[in-house]
Amino acid sequence: MTIKESLEDLRDRLETLQQSLAAKIAEFRSDESASPEHRQRLDALHAQAAAVKAKLPADDGSVWDAIRHEVQRDMDALSKDFEHTITYIDDHYREKK
Fold this sequence. Notes:
This protein has 3 helices and no strands. It is mainly alpha-helical. It has one domain (7-96). The longest helix has 35 residues, at 62-96.
């Protein structure tokens, strides 16, 4: 996030991430060979994304200014966790096929 990035931009990024996460969750829930640990990790990331979304204010304003950095840290952590988890799962998932 940059200073110029709007709250709407952040909402869009979060929505894109949640859609990617939902696709992976659906993929691994329908595949019986996916490990329960991987499914649990994706469920945890889903909950984390929902928590980040809940922190976003309804509109831009002083509340947003007050929580901007906290939400950014959460968003960065969530994005990195998602990328790391999906890379790990994909690497191990491909080994089994």
